[in-house]
Every structure is written in C-alpha cells, then in structure tokens.
Amino acid sequence: MSGFVLADENWLTINVTGVPKKIEKNIFAHLGTLPDNDVQRRAFLFTVDDNTHDALESMGYYHAILDIDVKENDKGPWELSLNITPGEPVIIQWVDINFQGDMLQDNTFSLWLNSLKIKPGDTLNHGVYDSIKSQLITLALARGYFDGQYTKSEININRDLNTAQINLLFNSGKRYLFGDVHFEGSTLNDDIVESLIPFDADAPYATQLLTEFNRNLLNTGYFSNIKVLPQLDKIDTGVVPINVQLSPRPSHLIGVGLGADIGNSTENSVDPRVRVTWRTPQINRYGHNQETSAEWSPERPKILTTYTIPLTHPLDDQLKIKLGILRDTYGVTQDYDAEKRQFNNTGQLESRKYLVGLTRQRRSKSNWLHGYSVESIREFYNQLDTDFDPRFYLLGYNLTKTVRGDNSLDPKSGYRQTYSLEYADPSLGSTIRLVHLQARFKWVDTLFDKHRFVARMDLAANIVDKNDIDNIPPSLRYFAGGDQSIRGYSYQELGPYIDYINSEGGLSRQVVGGRYLAIGSVEYQYYLTPTWRVATFVDAGNAFDTQQFEPVVSVGGGVHWISPIGPIRMDLGFGLKETETVARSYRFHLTMGTDL
C-alpha cells in the first residue's frame, strides 16, 4: 500500500510504501506540515527519521526498518520515498486498572470498565492508551471527583519479547456535592423555578443532572436564554454552588405555518392551509401561559385557544382550559346522473363545532403523560338532507409516552404511543351514549447514519348503539386520507358511504365516516446530505363499518429538507385503488414538523 502527498508550492513529495493505510496516515500526521521553502524543506528532511519511528512506535511497531531515499531534482519538487518494513508489533500482555477513593462506591466506573474494548492480545496503541486515560479523567470530573488524579500511569514494554504491560491507578478522592442554587433574571415565583431542579440539596454532583436541569428550564418555554453554571471557583467544604442565569422570552410570539395539498381528488385541485399561532409564554409570576391558533383553509377555518396553569410542577402537572370554534369538511357528497350513469361530486359533509374543555396532564416518573379531561361540544351538520345538532359532555382519559433518541427537531430514533378513551352518557347531559377509543403508534429508527425508517399505525373504534350512529358528530367519527393518514387521497375524504333519496327525489351518495379505523404506514428515507433526504412510502387502510370495509393503498415518495426550524416535506402520493366515491387519485403534500 502507498501514499502520495504534494505540497502546495511543489517543494516536496512523499511516497510511503510497506505499511497499511492507517499506519501511513499516522506517519503523515507525525511528519507535520509540508515545507513551503528550501530552508523548511531541509529542516523537514532532518527530522523525517525520528518522526517516522515515533509514528510507528505509537502504534506498537518498535522494530520497524526504515529505508529513506531523497531525490533532489533541479526542477520541480524533491521526492522523498519511505520504504518501511514494520516488523512484528508489540502485544499487550495485561491491562491493570485500579481505583481508590470514593469512586469505589460509584457503580458508574464499573460500567465504564466493562465498556472498554482494550484487552490482552491487542496490538499496543499509544493513542488508545491516552484515550482511556482521558476518558477516566473526564468521567471523574463529570461525577464530581474534582481532586482525582493518577498515582500510577505507565506502559512497561519488553522489546525482546515484544510485550507491553499497562498499569493505571486512579485516586478519585472525595466526591463533591451540589450546593445552593441561585437564580438570576427570572420573574417567576421561586417555587416554580425551584421545582425544576432535578436534584436535592447536598446530592452527589453529576453534570448529567445539570444537563437535565437545563433541559427542564428550556422545555417550560419561559426563557430565551439559559445558563446553568457550576461555580467551581467557589467550592467550600466539598459543596459546589450553582448559578442559573435566565432571560425571559418576549411577552408575545407569533408563528406562521404554511401547507398545501394538490391533486385530482374529490376536493379542489389545490387545498392551501395557513396557520397563525399567537403565544404568550408567561402571563404572570405564577407561570400561566396561553396559545391561540387560527387556521385557514377553504371550507375549514378553525380557532382554538388553550390557557395553561401550572399546578404542582410547571412541566409535569398542568391544567389546560380550551375554547374553540372549528369548521370542518368530511368525505364527499354526490348526485347520480342518470344520463351518464355516474355519480358527480356536489360538495362535502360540513360541520361546525363549539368546544369548551378542561384537561389535567400529569407526567409520571416513567415518562408516561396522563391526561384527565372533561369536554363539552356542540356540533351542527347536515347529513342525508337532515339537520343534526347533538350535544356531548365527554369524560376522557389519555395516555401517551414519547421516547426520542435525541432532542433534535429531526430525531434519528424514538417512538410514540398514545391511547385515549372518551365516554359520553345521556344521564350526564349527552345526546347519546358513546365510547370513543383510539390507539396510535409511531416508530423511527436510523441505520448506518443514512437509512431512516418511519412506521405508524392508527386504530380506533366507536362503541354505540346502531340506532344512534347518525347522532355521532363527524368530528368523533373516523375518516381516512391526508398527509397524516393515507397519502394519495385528500384530507378525510375516505370512509363508508350511504346511498339515499335526496329532497328533490334523486339518488345521492354521501361519505359519512365509520365507526372503526385501521391505518398503517411504512416509509424509508435516505439521507443524500445531512440536511436533504429522499423518501418512499406505502400507506394502507381505511375507515369502515361492520359491513362495509374497503381498504385502500397509496404509494409515493418525496424530498425532505431538514431546515433549522424542522423538517419540511414535499411528498407525492398515488392512490392505487378507485373506490365507489373516489377515482384513482394523486396528491402532493407540503408539510412541516417533526415526526415525534
């Protein structure tokens, strides 16, 4: 194997033969920067022998034979040739690592020892040895052993036997403790920010807990700038005080989101969506905050306000008050043309909903988010030429757990599982008795850095007397289609339908949604660069009733840009099946947001 390097000014070329690529690379690193004048070239050549042997010995080759040849050209660069016979490497005979001090009671160091890859029989590598020493010091500092030091660190090499013995003895001394936490810049009550501290007073020091503390402060949304600083220069009697510097976020934040569906489905060919979100991160010193979102799209304007009150913990225990007015469209309405013997689209099932809700969300130590809710909804819609306006008082319970492999906007791995149950009863003022069930799953994983997989599944059911089905409002029924459902079809256009005689005596058909939902999706994504990827997917399933299940499949692909504000996805889906209400369609979806 050989290597060839040319200086920018053509003063010297180097050719290395006789060693593997990794050793050759190490030799070039030891030789250093190539010369750019005659004086530097002669100085460079003077140290070639020593630097090359140092490079070989650092990787365990103490008996290498080096043949150096320099060709001094009158014109052009001089040529340096290094022909190397590396010989037999030095083999590690044993590795002896011992601890002293308080670290003996800290299981973290035992786990670190078990993770080490170095073992007897390996070729000696001084870089690996130095890395192990550095790792141990770094871990000790991260665990609060600020007085830790090596009392022995040596490699004994027997050149005759080509063996090496590694001996390390580290004395950690005592472990320091967390001291008082002092906050600067916060306008919240002390009990709110103090509840975010993930450690008790006088707890053993660990940078991992400081990282969690910083993340808690960030996740509240109250602060624009956060610094959690251990004051190592003020350590007193083994206690480390913590200084927290905070800057409140602006009083009001405005966000704008854009999206669009384009295609040849039952809806218009272009379905734009605009969302404006107004946030007040901190309303008062008790940590109250509000978020109001107004969404516009043809036929589907919505406005929803959520007022949040922290209870026992600003992140893990919250009371949310919701007020909303939402207009939505579902499925398709069609009239039969007797001359052409076909159904023609005439509109959609439209609904107008008024919502008042109260929810308490609590997060458990195992990261499950429990939600207990009471919602009052009144919904107005016309189905089969009949007006409906049922009222519901829903008692709900929601259970969610999200695990991310990292905290980025585009996590490489993770999963989310969500389960929800809502119950309405006439004795509590609801129009009918209803049990509303949903389960959603999403899984993300990345293999070999570039191959990302996303899978999801949605299952749902309404348990209700069959005579009361018409009184289930459309927002509580199940429809399929859209960028979060079955791509290739428009938003909520798929589901069971009913044929009926309209008010003019003609035959009409209306998609009214189903009591059940089953949808699955698998997507493969390949990273072209760290910020661009391509994707291909298969979506399948549908909303259905007991006696009317018509599964559909869509396939497609897209291009995703991992922008600084989150992934922006441009997906094109093709429906593979022509249903009774939807012809074979395609849809282009432009969306933004994280997968988890």
Automatic annotation (TrEMBL):
It is found in: Cell outer membrane. Keywords: Cell outer membrane, Membrane, Signal, Transmembrane, Transmembrane beta strand. Signal peptide: none annotated. GO terms for biological process: protein secretion. Its main location: membrane. Residues 14-86 form the TamA POTRA domain. It comes from the Bacteria. InterPro entries: Bac_surfAg_D15, BamA/TamA_POTRA, D15-like, TamA_POTRA_Dom_1. Residues 176-244 form the POTRA domain. GO terms for cellular component: cell outer membrane; TAM protein secretion complex. Residues 338-595 form the Bacterial surface antigen (D15) domain. Interacts with TamB to form the translocation and assembly module (TAM). Belongs to the TamA family. This is Translocation and assembly module subunit TamA. It comes from Shewanella psychromarinicola.
